[in-house]
User: Fold this.
Amino acid sequence: MRKLKIYLDTSVLNFYYAEDLPKEMSTTKELFKEIEQKKYEAFISATVVDEIEAADETTKNRLINLVSTYNLRILELSSEVDYLAGKYLQHGIIPQKYARDAYHIAYPVVYDLDIIISWNFEHIVKLKTKNEVNGINKLEGFKEIEICSPWEVIESED
Assistant:
């Protein structure tokens, strides 16, 4: 069976260390355990790397270690990613102020991944975003993409 190709936005990496949100942290660690077990091919993007680089030194070091430990593959910025993210912004799917979120959606669409995984319920993991993103994807000749929280993806049950 083909492994699902998953995209992790920066929120997923950050929640690995979210001690103030133990349930979400536990779910995130379970997702990473499944990545380690090779249930998925896991990817991040140049945008995630930029966000890691902008973090304070402690957070930056933790996240770099996480990327390295789990061998997360990095998707590079392309003109297609730039174009598609621009479409999401132009149509108001993602507010201009949160342009990086549009990129978090565009990378896995352009690179033909299966699922975007995020803890961002404000701009990414919401029905309106899913519907509108997939509408633009169809119009622009891209396939539809699943957008999920880690809760929806992990196979393990509590």
About this structure: The longest helix spans residues 22-36. Residues 43 and 73 are 5 Å apart (CA to CA).
